[in-house]
Protein 1
Amino acid sequence: MKELSLTEHIKRAKQGDTASFAWLVNRYKSHIVSVAWGILQNREDAEEVAQDAFVKAYMSLRELTHEEAFYQWLVTIVTHLSLNRKKAIARRREEITEMAEEQGASRLAVASEEADRIVTRETVRQALRGLSEEKRTVLILRELQGFSYEEIAKILKLPLGTIKSRIHAARNELKIRLIKEGWHNDM
């Protein structure tokens, strides 16, 4: 039996073929989790958001007009869900901090979940964490996911000039942070 093409799997999934959609999930899961992790910096949250992104994609798959844009469409979904999750986490942390302060606690010690997950390239990851959310997001989409400036502009629904400016600023700031950490490499 002939193996189906990516486009055929997408077309079949749009028609309700769950096996083809499962094939798409298997093909893109690690990429989608990677995008979410880059934004959230937490593996469990990233996996949860990736799962939510696939559910949302499945529910709105019929809205996809160009099959060849499936991956970009999926990254758009996971990016927005990740940014929303990050905001929700920040709100929860603020609420917890406020509650602790109201109860007389001097400070709420919130341990960084990432510190428990030390992995290779920790210096680069720490420098990335130091970037603002906007800079980190565009840098991850460009450098780690390989999207063009135009694709990133579409994903984030921002002007192309804004994307170029943010990427340029993010690269410069990352380079400075890495040099301060003692990491010397041509960037």
Note: Helices lie at 6-14, 18-40, 43-59, 70-102, 122-129, 133-144, 149-156, 160-180.
Protein 2
Amino acid sequence: MKKFNFKLKDLKFRRVDVHELDDRILLVNLYMTQGLVLLIAAVIMLFQKPSLGSLFSIDNPGTILIWGGSFALIVLAADLLISRWVPPEVTDDGGINKMIFGNRALWHIALLSLIVSICEEVLFRGAIQAAWGPYWTSILFAAIHIRYLQHWLMTGLVFSISYGLGWIYIQTGSLWTPIFAHFLIDFVMGCILRYRREE
């Protein structure tokens, strides 16, 4: 039997420049990360044993569309104002969003937005918010969006969006509401990045 001689000191970490990543690695990373997010949510929910029927209830689809759509419009309007009046270096995420959405087909932007919105909302609103509440959940949500932490405005915006998603979830009682809002925000922003780049 072969013996592995593994030493922690041999493990080397280095900062990766986003421009060193090719499209395939970026997508694999994104899909694997979202799979991990969903796995963590499933493990947490095993201990909480929530009623999945109540989490994903669609008692009133109109309420989900109105609350989710209205919240997404508010966020998109705020983002439009920020991008119009705030210098670009304050909203810089290192080019990650442009790399993710910049060359995608419309269907792929929609698919990525759907996967991210479902995975992140199941974890943050469905699993974590049940134990921590919307405030601490939003702090964690902002903290994992590492690329924005260097700019207080973007960190505050991510925290506010998360808190708002938690609030509309509480108001409607359905996880589909923040999923729908999150999807709309990501999809519209992805389309803006995609088609603005072509102009």
Note: The chain has a mean pLDDT of 87.
Protein 3
Amino acid sequence: MSSTETRKQTPAPRPRRRLTRDRRHRQLLDVAWAVVREEGTEALTLGRLAEQAGVAKPVVYDHFGTRPGLFAALYREFDARQTALMETALRASEPTLTGRAAVIASSYVDCVLAQGREIPGVIAALASSPELEKVKRECEAVFMEQCRIVLAPFAAAGTIAPAGLRAMLGAAEALSYAAAAGEITARQAQDELFEIILAMVARSR
């Protein structure tokens, strides 16, 4: 068979279908989470992300700018998912202290476990720069304010002290990460956080 005939029988490569910006952003985030899950946060660079996503480096730089920008985007996505999960559960819960506390405890733990063991690594990476630490603090402030609004009606003083909310958040993170690492079960993490929330409200009475 001649080379001419061979060329005629070889199908032409299909042109790549270009993704919209939103879909490309979604793809890049999904690939970034996969890299963190399989290789750890240290392996996640913009170059590595471009390689794994099958795109040119300028595409990744256009979406995230810098490596800290990429980690900030990952954390914001996790935080948005956590907020949405809790808001949905709160709307369906009983308007009682135990009902609200149970939702906060289960939603926080469930969201961390749904994201997998990679989220502690992402959060640890946030402490690597003041820029990323600021992003984390801003998201934490929104979460604590949401909890304060939900729990304040059950406190005699009509509000929850900031120190109590900060302690609750610290416990939520520690218990959720312990569950993600397999040190305790999800139920144990949720039950302990539930009791901590009740105690926090009781101290505010």
Note: The chain has ten helices and no strands.
